[in-house]
Amino acid sequence: MSIVLADTGALVALLDRREKYHAWAVEQIRDIRPPLVTCEAVLAELCFLVSAYPKGIDSVRDSLDSGAWAVDFSLRAEWAPVFALMDTYSDQPMSLADGCLVRMSEKFAGSRIFTLDRHFQVYRRNRRQAIPLIIPPDR
């Protein structure tokens, strides 16, 4: 089973029952072997977005504590390639979280990105390779 890298939108969809893609995200998670792997930049975005939800931050903490989600990336070690990706895709524009996930997809061979973000259909890992995605069919 390949590593699944989690983007902010997909994690919001998992946590928020009102989110348009909640049912889709829950269905996808049934076929994914934990943990979902992410980075601090995604968690920062996620915590900001769910902070207004009842128990939103608690859900993030609980998912990390239970091992359902894991952080496996060091921006300190990878800042140069991440910012190079952000320069390459400045016309999108690429967020820091997106840059980290693309870099993670380069480091974790065979990984897929769980996302709602169509920009990942444009981004390439190792300059030329399409990134395998878990993305809703209408995105």
Number of strands: 7
Structural class: alpha/beta
Task: Quote the beta fraction.
Answer: 5-15%
Helical percent range? 40-55%
Please tally the helical runs, counting DSSP H or I stretches of 4 or more residues. Answer: 6
Q: SSE order, as H and E?
A: EHHEHHEHHEEEE
Q: Which fold does the CATH topology refer to?
A: Rossmann fold
Question: Any idea what the CATH superfamily is called?
Answer: 5'-nuclease
Low-confidence runs of at least 5 consecutive residues: none
By CATH, the architecture is named 3-Layer(aba) Sandwich
Return the CATH class: Alpha Beta
Q: Biggest β-sheet: count, sense, barrel? A: 3 strands, parallel
Rg (CA only): 14 Å
Number of domains: 1
How far do the termini sit from each other?
A: 24 Å
What does this structure look like?
It is a single chain. 46% of the residues lie in helices and 13% in strands. The protein has 139 residues and is of the alpha/beta class. The protein has one domain: Rossmann fold, CATH 3.40.50.1010. The strands form three sheets. Strands 1-4-7 form a three-stranded parallel beta sheet. A two-stranded parallel sheet has the order 2-3. Strands 5-6 form a two-stranded antiparallel ribbon.
